[in-house]
């Protein structure tokens, strides 16, 4: 049931797409989104509650798992679902100079370690005991081996490059345990540094330690970095006496250059200084003012961090990014201060959970009247502990009215029967899980996937030009865009761009500041929050997935064949999962064998077999082998296709070759799906080919149009409308489900 059709975009590109259906009913015609009230979307939170319901309790409450010693540094034992949005979105790096973000709130030495005057530990064994208690034996051994390898390579003058130059301890969810590990490792191995990446601790060589060893003895460098890490207030560190003034000058310069915001250095003559013994020592002290100011800043940062206000946003016929931009202006914050679980339709009435930081509940309540003018309302306003992250929802509930119902062309069957047949068919068999058209923007000349492709190819200027490409419309927004492409005058374009176009104005302000150059365009993209930057890259991956599933169904139909990927994991469709979670899911993705294809071990449709569903909680591999031997019934496993990224595997059949050909076609054959300049990493995910609507209900209503006159007589003419309600999992599209029901493109 796969139909190939060719579409022509208004930019005269020919775009080929095969649009497949998995069901075989006839369908019907109708109109959706006649008005925003005909398409109501209500987010379903992780507890399965509709977010438009009044609630005194936080809808989203992030539960911090405190792993025991045996769980530390074992990635598969940690649940990334319990991480906050901020912990997932950015790579954070601990430095000696200060701290920000999540792991950066760790302050080396703040654990009140006992230190002596030169900053060394009171007991060397304490750090060994700490590492032994928090790390499993294998990880501890590997850490010690890594430290030995670093020293050996330095001694042999070997360059520390490649993957062997860092060592991961895995994800540690408890911040306090991460802080203790950071400190213990730095105290035991001052020639190493620890880096925080989304709650993962990575250990690397301390190149500044190596550089200092060229100026002083290794013993002094070792003790100096232990002193720095301990940060004991009012303590000092003294280097060995030195008679060489130029050498002392070099040491002063190194320390002030690297750590000048943290410490100060002074030279003092030795107590027995004389003309015959002109030895001078360099003493290092923490800067008192900087140290105290830093402590206050950290305290203030923590004070601010607790100000997270959750609310439910209701918007009508308004783009989500436009709504966020308007709220940001009214609250005096920036768009990236808002977090949300998912994007919502524009031409609809939508309800979604949001969290804004640095804004109190009282302050948000004060703007309620103002934002009503923009067709927005906020309610369920309350304080919470953390931000949201994309994908932190169970799904969405839809209440939809389809108007002007009629039969397909040349179909004379009873319309009511056609509608009943269509709805029940999709309810039982599901629909092809395409990404919906709103994923790619509603523009005719440029789609969001084209911008994403340019970003993946690091064509930053082209990406900006695509973003600011006008449509063939004569309105202020498109006139401003047209002016920019003609002149590249960011300042002039800014004066033309309407105030409500928040994203465009933010980009233009950055271009005006940094210039329309490669570097300037990189800075301009940083005017968008991380979630918006990654959105464009995901749009490209989504386009390729749509093409892939069409090719898969056109090539193999509904058969499950050798080389297909099947997955038993229920939670695989979240493209915002961190790489570690994707790795765990990848381990549960199974390549169908020739024997399994012959035995029909798997089915593309969900088979409702109660016995199997009960037993799924046991060893899935065992049951797969059991079915392989007994061939009793098809196993419940979803056929999946990879969404592009650096951490996925491809099918081992014609489809795998197709993926490689498409990547070559688009110039991405060497793409690593990481854009360091924009701090974007795309691990990828797996997406089920088919999905089913849940809790589906429907009702046919007759709309009577009075005053229809025919040959002078007054008659009543009734038209049918369909009221349909259902739930879909996160990242599924109601328009795609309706397309399968109606066999009709919108």
Automatic annotation (TrEMBL):
UniProt keywords, alphabetically: Isomerase, Membrane, mRNA processing, Phosphoprotein, Transmembrane, Transmembrane helix
UniProt catalytic activity: a uridine in mRNA = a pseudouridine in mRNA
Keyword Secreted carried by entry: no
Biased composition (Basic and acidic residues): 109-123
Biological process terms in GO annotation: mRNA processing; pseudouridine synthesis
CDD domains the record matches: PseudoU_synth_ScPUS7
Keyword Transcription regulation in annotation: no
UniProt-annotated stretches for the region Disordered: 97-123
Parts of the chain that traverse the membrane: 626-648
Pfam family, one: PUS7L_N
GO cellular component, as recorded: nucleus
GO molecular function, one term: pseudouridine synthase activity
TRUD domain sequence ranges: 430-692
Family: Belongs to the pseudouridine synthase TruD family.
Described purpose of this protein according to its UniProt entry: Pseudouridine synthase that catalyzes pseudouridylation of mRNAs.
Name of the protein this chain belongs to: Pseudouridylate synthase PUS7L
Native species: Monodon monoceros (Narwhal)
């Amino acid at each position: 049931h796969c139909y190939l059709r060719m579409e022509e975009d208004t930019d005269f590109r020919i775009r080929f797409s095969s649009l497949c259906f998995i069901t075989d009913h006839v369908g019907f015609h109708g109109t959706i989104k006649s008005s925003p009230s005909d398409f109501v979307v209500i987010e379903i939170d992780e507890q399965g509650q509709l977010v438009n319901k009044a609630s005194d309790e936080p809808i989203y409450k992030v539960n911090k798992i405190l792993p025991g010693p045996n769980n530390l540094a074992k990635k598969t034992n940690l649940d990334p679902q319990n991480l906050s949005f901020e912990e997932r979105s950015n790579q954070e790096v601990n430095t000696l100079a200060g701290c920000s973000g999540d792991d950066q709130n760790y302050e080396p030495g703040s654990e009140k370690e006992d230190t002596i005057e030169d900053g060394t530990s009171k007991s060397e064994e304490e750090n060994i005991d700490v590492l032994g208690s928090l790390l499993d034996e294998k990880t501890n051994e590997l850490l010690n081996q890594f430290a030995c390898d670093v020293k050996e390579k330095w001694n042999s003058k070997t360059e520390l490059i490649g993957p062997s130059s860092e060592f991961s301890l895995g994800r540690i969810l408890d911040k306090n345990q991460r802080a203790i590990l950071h400190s213990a490792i730095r105290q035991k191995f001052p020639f190493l540094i620890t880096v925080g990446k989304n709650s993962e601790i990575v250990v690397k060589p301390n190149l500044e330690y190596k550089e200092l060893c060229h100026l002083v003895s290794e013993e002094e460098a070792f003790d100096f970095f232990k002193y720095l890490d301990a940060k004991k207030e009012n303590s000092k560190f003294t280097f060995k006496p030195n008679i060489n003034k130029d050498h002392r000058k070099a040491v002063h310069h190194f320390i002030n250059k690297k750590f000048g915001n943290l410490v100060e250095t002074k030279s003092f003559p030795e107590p027995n200084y004389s003309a015959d013994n002109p030895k001078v020592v360099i003493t290092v002290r923490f800067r008192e003012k900087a140290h105290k100011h830093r402590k206050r800043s950290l305290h203030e940062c923590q004070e601010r961090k607790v100000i997270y206000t959750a609310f439910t946003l209701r918007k009508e016929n308004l783009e989500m990014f436009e709504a966020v931009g308007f709220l940001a202006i009214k609250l005096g914050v920036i768009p990236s201060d808002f977090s949300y679980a998912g994007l919502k339709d524009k031409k609809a009435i939508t309800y979604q959970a949001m969290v804004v930081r640095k804004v109190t509940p009282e302050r948000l309540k004060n703007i309620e009247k103002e934002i009503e003018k923009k067709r927005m309302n906020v309610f369920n306003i309350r304080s919470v502990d953390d931000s949201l992250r994309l994908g932190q929802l169970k799904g969405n509930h839809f209440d939809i009215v389809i108007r002007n119902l009629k039969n397909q062309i040349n179909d004379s069957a009873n319309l009511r029967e056609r509608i009943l047949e269509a709805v029940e068919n999709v309810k039982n068999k599901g629909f092809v899980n395409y990404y919906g058209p709103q994923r790619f923007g509603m523009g005719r000349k440029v789609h969001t996937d084209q911008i994403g492709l340019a970003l993946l190819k690091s064509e930053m200027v082209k990406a900006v030009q695509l973003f600011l490409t006008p449509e063939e419309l004569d309105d202020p927004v498109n006139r401003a865009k047209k002016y920019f492409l003609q002149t590249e005058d960011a300042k002039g374009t800014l004066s033309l761009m309407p105030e409500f176009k928040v994203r465009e104005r933010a980009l233009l302000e950055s271009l005006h500041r940094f210039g329309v150059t490669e570097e300037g365009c990189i800075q301009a993209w940083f005017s968008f929050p991380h979630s918006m930057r990654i959105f464009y890259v995901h749009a490209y991956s989504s386009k390729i997935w749509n093409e892939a599933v069409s090719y898969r169904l056109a090539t193999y139909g509904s058969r499950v064949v050798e080389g297909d990927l099947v997955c038993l994991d229920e939670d695989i469709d979240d493209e915002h999962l961190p790489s570690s979670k994707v790795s765990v899911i990848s381990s549960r993705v199974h390549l169908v064998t020739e024997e399994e294809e012959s035995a029909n071990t798997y089915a593309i449709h969900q088979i409702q077999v109660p016995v199997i569903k009960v037993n799924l909680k046991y060893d899935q591999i065992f049951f797969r082998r059991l079915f392989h031997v007994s061939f009793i019934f098809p196993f419940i496993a979803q056929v999946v296709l990879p969404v592009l990224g650096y951490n996925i595997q491809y099918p081992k059949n014609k489809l795998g070759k197709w993926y490689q050909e498409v990547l070559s076609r688009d110039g991405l054959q060497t793409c690593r799906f990481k854009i360091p300049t924009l701090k974007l990493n795309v691990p990828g995910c797996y997406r089920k080919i088919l999905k089913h609507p849940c809790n589906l209900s429907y009702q046919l209503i007759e709309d009577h149009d009075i005053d229809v006159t025919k040959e002078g007589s007054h008659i009543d003419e009734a038209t049918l409308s369909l009221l349909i309600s259902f739930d879909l999992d996160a990242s599924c599209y109601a328009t795609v489900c309706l397309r399968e029901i109606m066999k009709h493109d919108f």
